[in-house]
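The aim of this short unit is practical: by the end, you should be able to scan a pair of folded records and say something sensible about each. We start with the first protein, listed as its amino acid sequence and then its structure tokens.
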Amino acid sequence: MELSNLKINFLGDSITEGFSAETKEASYVGRFKSQYPDAIIRNYGVGGSCVSNTCIWGSEDMRTRAKRMEPDADLIVVFGGTNDFHCTTPLGTPQERTEGTFYGAYNLLMDDLLERYPHTKIVLCTCLPRYDETWPARNEVVHLAPLQTYVDIIKHIGQMRDLPVIDLFTLECFREPVPGAISPLTQDGLHPGDEGHGILFDCIH
């Protein structure tokens, strides 16, 4: 898809916001701006944001924020879910529509986007690997399921909605051989540094 002269909305969490990149320009969204100076690139990434309304840090959920996005986008990229994993968001069921489960909140978000942007290409991104993706608990927070389960839900919703899904969870370069080890492509086992953002740009691009 040729991106020049397009209006693109990026909806996500701290990774989309550019947290841990040295500069805004080094983030994956910033690289889109540099690569496509004729495009209008809008960053709707907010740190700590969940797809659901279960955020333990008080960040506004993605569905609520999506309602304030500019309405003239030609392309929307949705990249979220890792905070739902961390915040132990209940999984829900495939047909569910409720703000408090991952299936339910993601379905509601897709309902809203498809109604508001009927002619816009919408692309879903799965979560990146993270150092604690298979841990049953971290810092006394008991995970309801491995991160893979949340990834599978995103892929399933993309399949049900006939929407393209970029499976970032398959990027083994972000996953160390020793479980729990911190990938050098990240600052903390989750947030990519500049090199990691470059890889993200290449994959999403």
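Turning to the second protein, read its sequence before its tokens, just as you did above.
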Amino acid sequence: MQQIENDLARTFPRNKFFHRGEKGHKRLRSVLRAFACYDDQADYVQGMNFLVGQLLMHCSSTLAFWLFLELIETCELRDIYQVGLPGLKKHKAIVEMLVAEHLPSLHVHFEENQVKMEMYAGDWMFAIFTSILPENESTVTARYFTLFFKHKWEFFYKLILSILEHLSPKLLEADDFFSIMQTIKIAMSNKNDPYLYALVHQQEQL
């Protein structure tokens, strides 16, 4: 429970809805605590807060809880939150295989600079991209969740490949570990990038 309290203030810190004392802050605590009591198979992990936070910006606390539970149970999120993080290891292996197959030059470049998948995409997995979705674009968020519920991890993998393909010219120019990581961080921190919005809609062709 203490980790939940610690992460409340880190959840969309620029969004007033989640500031201490505001409705979002209270609702986020309520949903995360309710889930911690409900599910004894998955530990609370940072990333859950952003996922639930995105849901709370668009629906009630009750609906957010049940949607989160649906993600955990039917969209196979539970194993990325279990002790030992077996899901993270599974998805890491799949993403690395897909990058090697579809973006071979980038795969070699990452290997040469010791860039591991979990270093740039670990947070994306724990929050299934909800930490970088725009906070005031309901149509984008709704489309994202619609596609994730429908296609699950297949959609997630395709989105990662699309992002890396889009960034690959800059990533291949980056000549060391720090530059590569900074390129990804800067690109993904720009929530107003229209390309990021377009990516969500683009992934309909599965």
